[in-house]
Specification:
Elements: E1 24-28, E2 34-38
Bound molecules: iron/sulfur cluster (SF4).
């Protein structure tokens, strides 16, 4: 079951939970676009490499330490 987490608001709302997840890594291409890679996808095929955004529920979510 997914953890009970509120999606972020404001600018991060377009990204959803990934915005504050420690498993997200930003990937920038040469044209200035930014993609959000889920590093859980490296070891678990249940997670897409590039999740469809915004992610509103995710069993793998773990908040970044700040
Ligand atoms: S584990 Fe879930 S919330 Fe975290 S980066 Fe991957 S898809 Fe996003």
């Amino acid at each position: 079951m997914a953890p009970d987490v509120q999606p972020p608001s404001g600018q991060s709302a377009a990204i959803g939970l990934c915005a504050s997840c420690q498993h997200r890594r930003e990937v920038h291409n040469t044209r200035g676009s930014v993609f959000h890679l889920c590093e859980r996808s490296r070891e678990d095929p249940a997670y897409p490499r590039y999740p469809r955004l915004p992610v509103l529920r995710c069993a793998g979510y773990e908040r970044t330490a700040r």
